[in-house]
Write a structure and sequence with these properties.
The chain has 670 residues and is of the alpha/beta class. It has 4 domains: 26-53 and 357-433, no CATH class; 73-152 and 280-353, Rossmann fold; 168-276, no CATH class; 450-637, Trna Endonuclease, Chain: A, domain 1 (3-Layer(aba) Sandwich), CATH 3.40.1350. It is 48% helix and 11% strand. A 6-stranded mixed beta sheet has the order 8-9-10-11-12-13, with helices on both faces. Strands 4-5-6-3-7 form a 5-stranded parallel beta sheet, with helices on both faces. Helix 7 crosses helix 9. The radius of gyration is 28 Å and the shape is globular.
């Protein structure tokens, strides 16, 4: 018997009224069943299950994977119930842990929660997975906080803009108590149409008014930056500042902000406090199970995150912290920490364990995947699970397979039951079974990486790994020997000089220092260049810095004259960071990090893929970025990457003399 799945306001319930079977439905409509030849031809040309069955950030933030909402509803319902109880004042905060084996749907649950919150509201949503530097998890979380709140929420604007709208409305009502509450979209449209000078006045007045409603506000600059997110032209800079990245001094001057936001956790805590004034917050930690990720103290990623969850929980005003992990991670890593730590990871109850799929849920899952496939092609199959049979799918449940394995089985066995006609067979496309590394690589390279392009540690880590895969190879006349991440004289890591490539170039010893320097300007950029120039201290024969040529990455003339000109004269090099060249390097690094838990791969398989298929995927010796780092210094820095101070000063002066705005413009009263 089939059952209809229907959502309710608080929990997802099963309607016990039998659904009319697909065959019966066909007789009740005027649409005839499509010809078996057309259906088989469609299946032969495109496998509905060809998409790799791995749920990642793209499925959490973007289009949702087909989801059987009754499967493991106890876990998602527990989260929604906690959010509801917090919203009604029963308590202020809690934490929930979910445990499940690899592939059983941990991230599916997070995706389900995120999409329902986006549709119905109830809480802002943070999704934390990738921490580039486990030694500084607070800075990494600040970046994640900035990126997550930059995603569209339930009001059709970004979550930052939702928060900014609440702050703006409170400020306006302080000055004009009878003013109507302005919608988020209206505020965004209004400020996005204004000139910079007008918005400067509005943002300053709103910040000052809001401060008067919050006498204990620690850092009004954070409020100012949040309000700037309402203006599309300046919002990206404001989000970068809130994420912990440094602003170029001219842009900081334009926005009336210091160039950097200050201590990471202080910023995090104030943002969380501001959110709690208006909404609940759900913070989800995922992808904790990689056993090869450690900080310098020897703690695994899961343990470092658990320690951070404890600190968050103790400084968290209103909301839910959710962590998902494998049972072994909970038992062997988290439970080995002091009680005061692991108890904060699961304050709600014992960890919630996810269940394997039974026959009914397997049928529902397969039917959901096929439904979209057939509807997109205007086809009506003889049954909703064609070309499979109910018996086949129910038999799968005997082995208690995870969701991922079921979808893989469907991919391997999605064959038409009847042979094609000769005409159709001639037109069909043979589906080539890709190797597992290639499928994983395609999955990772499809992810959005724009939020990573300012993360020096993450970019450097991708470069480091890809150079390690080229050990003993000769590229651009350099035979790569050792790749050293610990570059200091006593064998320690450096915050700015990321790694050294040691090898032979034309028979001579060579040691190339590499630094990714995406800092906007200021002290950190200068610190990086000082390392690159100190050949003696770091044992270098030459060095290069990797940096994009985007407008916001222009180098000030002072930095150029003080550091860069000297570096170039000594044989140093500027290597341009291009998204299309770094993206495959990031993708294969992510595959490598997730090789055991998510993809079931070995390091040897990944290196083999780089060697055999690198030329087709911008990997290995075929990657222009890696080649340029190894090549003889040849790139001459042109004037277009050096900041034109006169133009910037003129722009600021013009902005100062332009029309000003007033907070009264936002006060609409009856």
């Amino acid at each position: 018997m089939d059952y209809a799945i229907t959502p309710s306001a608080s929990v997802l319930q099963i309607n016990l009224n039998p659904v009319v079977s697909s065959c019966t439905q066909t007789t009740m409509t005027s649409s005839p069943i499509s010809s078996i030849e057309d259906i088989n031809a469609a299946l032969q040309n495109h496998n509905p299950f060809a998409l790799p069955p791995y749920v990642g950030s793209q499925e959490v933030w973007g289009k949702e994977f087909p989801d059987v909402t009754t499967l493991n509803a106890h876990a998602s319902d527990a989260v929604f119930q906690a959010i509801n109880q917090i919203s009604t004042g029963q308590y202020q905060r809690t934490s929930i842990a979910i445990t499940a084996e690899s592939g059983t749907g941990k991230t599916h649950i997070i995706s389900r929660i995120r999409h329902r919150l986006q549709t119905e509201g109830g809480a802002l949503f943070i999704y934390a997975t990738e921490f580039s530097d486990l030694n500084n998890i607070k800075h990494g979380f600040q970046r994640i906080l900035g990126d997550s709140l930059g995603k569209v929420g339930s009001q059709g604007v970004t979550q930052w803009q939702e928060l900014a709208s609440s702050i703006a409305n409170q400020a306006v009502k302080f000055i004009h108590p009878q003013a109507k509450t302005l919608l988020s979209q209206d505020l965004v449209q209004k400020l996005s149409r204004n000139e910079l000078s007008k918005n400067r006045t509005l943002v300053n007045q709103l910040t000052d008014a809001f401060r008067k409603t919050k006498p204990n506000l620690k850092n009004p600059d954070i409020v100012r930056a949040i309000l700037w997110t309402l203006a599309d032209s300046e919002g990206l800079y404001a989000v970068n500042w809130l994420s912990g990245y440094e602003l170029a001094q001219y842009k900081a001057n334009e926005l009336y902000l210091p160039s950097i936001s200050g201590a990471s956790f202080d910023t995090i805590q104030q943002v969380l406090d501001l959110i709690s004034d208006y909404n609940q917050l759900l913070i989800c930690f995922d992808e904790l199970d990689n056993p090869s990720e450690f900080n310098d103290a020897g703690y695994t990623k899961a343990q470092v995150v658990a320690g951070f969850v404890k600190e968050l929980f103790e400084n968290f005003s209103r909301g839910v912290i959710l962590t998902v992990m494998m049972p072994a991670t909970w038992t062997n890593k988290i439970k080995q920490l002091p009680t005061g730590v692991y108890s904060k990871v699961t304050a709600h109850s014992h960890p919630l364990d996810l269940k394997y799929m039974d026959g009914d849920s397997i049928i529902e899952l397969v039917a959901l995947w096929l439904k979209e496939f057939y509807e997109n092609r205007n086809l009506l199959p003889p049954s909703r699970i064609y070309p499979f049979t109910e018996g086949q799918l129910r038999e799968l449940s005997n082995e208690k397979p995870p969701v991922r394995r079921i979808l893989e089985w469907c991919r391997e066995n999605c064959n038409p039951r009847q042979p094609l006609t000769n005409d159709n067979r001639d037109k069909s496309v043979i589906i080539i079974d890709e190797d597992r590394v290639e499928k994983a690589f395609k999955k990772e390279i499809s992810q959005e990486i724009s939020s990573y392009l300012d993360d020096n540690y993450l970019l450097a880590d991708a470069l480091l790994f890809n150079f390690q895969a080229l050990k003993d190879k000769t590229i651009e006349r350099v035979k790569i020997g050792e790749i050293k991440e610990k570059v200091k004289q006593r064998g320690g890591k450096d915050d700015y000089l990321n790694f050294k490539i040691i090898g032979k170039e034309n028979g001579k010893d060579v040691c190339i220092g590499v630094a990714v320097l995406q800092y906007a300007s200021g002290s950190k950029l200068g610190a990086g260049f000082r390392r690159l120039n100190d050949f003696e201290k770091f044992g270098l024969t030459r060095s290069c810095f990797v940096r994009s040529k985007s407008k916001d990455k222009e180098i000030s003339r002072y930095i150029y004259n003080t550091y860069v000109a000297t570096l170039i004269s000594k044989g140093g090099e500027f290597v341009e960071l291009k998204e299309e060249e770094i993206k495959p390097l990031l993708a294969i690094r992510f595959v490598h990090k997730k090789r055991q838990v998510d993809y079931g791969l070995t390091e040897e398989e990944i290196f083999k893929f780089i060697q055999e298929k690198g030329s087709a995927n911008y990997l290995g010796a075929s990657n222009p970025l890696l080649k340029e780092i190894l090549s003889d210094p040849s790139y001459k820095i042109s004037e277009d990457v050096i900041e034109n101070n006169l133009e910037i000063i003129d722009k600021i002066n013009k902005s100062e003399s332009s029309e000003s705005g007033d907070i009264s413009e936002l006060a609409i009263v009856d």
